[in-house]
């Protein structure tokens, strides 16, 4: 287990057992989420899928709280599902966020207009390819890219794959370097 994974698990445990911690740690994601919402123009009419929510699905909760969209968050680790469900209730978002135990390589992406992949998701390249090939042409796929100094702790795409993005937004002062947007329809129009 990497030091980043270990620290993340400690923070998740604190957020699940000490409610004020959840609000403090939520501030870390505020600007990232706001930029991602603007990047993909997410709104109340979207059906959002978040892959890799962990025990504290902050991104899913903030997407729902800030846009009113219905969000489904999945994680392949069965051990975090109960905690994630409690966390969603703690945030009073159980009517807007659904937590499921599922693998990103097995989910059906056709029902979603926005798909978000967390940085810790692995194997990122296979999951991205599966989703991209299966999703609707207008679905917006967002992938977070880690800062260069910590890339070794995450599954990342080849630089040539990031270069195929439709758009991106950079983040400062975070472990997240950028959020990358892929939309098949826009890429196909660009190539035509």
Provide structural commentary.
With 192 residues, this protein is of the alpha/beta class. The protein is globular, with a radius of gyration of 16 Å. The chain is built from seven helices and seven strands.
Low-pLDDT residue intervals, each spanning 5 or more residues:
none
Percentage of residues in strands: 15-25%
Number of strands: 7
Q: Output the helix-strand order.
A: HHEHEHEEHEHEEH
Give the tags.
alpha/beta; 192 residues; globular; 7 strands; seven-stranded mixed β-sheet
Write the layout of secondary structure elements.
Elements: H1 3-17, H2 19-40, E1 47-51, H3 58-67, E2 70-75, H4 81-90, E3 97-101, E4 114-117, H5 124-134, E5 140-146, H6 159-162, E6 167-170, E7 176-182, H7 184-191
Parallel strand pairs: 1-2, 1-4, 2-3, 4-5
Antiparallel strand pairs: 5-7, 6-7
Helix pairs in contact: 1-2, 2-3
Short structural summary:
Helices cover 42% and strands 20% of the residues. With 192 residues, the protein is α/β, with parallel strands linked by helices.
């Amino acid at each position: 287990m990497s030091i980043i994974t270990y620290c993340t698990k400690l923070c998740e445990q604190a957020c699940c057992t000490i409610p004020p911690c959840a609000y403090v740690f939520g501030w870390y994601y505020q600007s990232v989420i706001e930029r991602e919402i603007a990047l993909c123009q997410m709104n109340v009419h979207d059906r959002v899928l978040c892959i890799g929510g962990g025990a504290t699905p902050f991104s899913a909760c903030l997407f729902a709280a800030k846009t009113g969209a219905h969000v489904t968050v999945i994680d392949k680790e069965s051990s975090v599902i109960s905690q994630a469900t409690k966390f969603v209730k703690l945030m009073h978002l159980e009517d807007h966020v659904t937590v499921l135990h599922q693998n990103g390589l097995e989910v059906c992406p056709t029902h979603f207009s926005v798909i978000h992949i967390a940085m810790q998701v692995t194997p990122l390249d296979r999951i991205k390819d599966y989703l991209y090939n299966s999703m609707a042409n207008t679905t917006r796929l967002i992938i977070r890219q880690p800062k260069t100094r910590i890339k070794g702790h995450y599954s990342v795409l080849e630089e040539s794959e990031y270069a195929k993005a439709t758009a991106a937004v950079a983040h400062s002062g975070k472990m997240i370097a950028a959020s990358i947007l892929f939309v098949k329809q826009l890429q196909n129009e660009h190539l035509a």
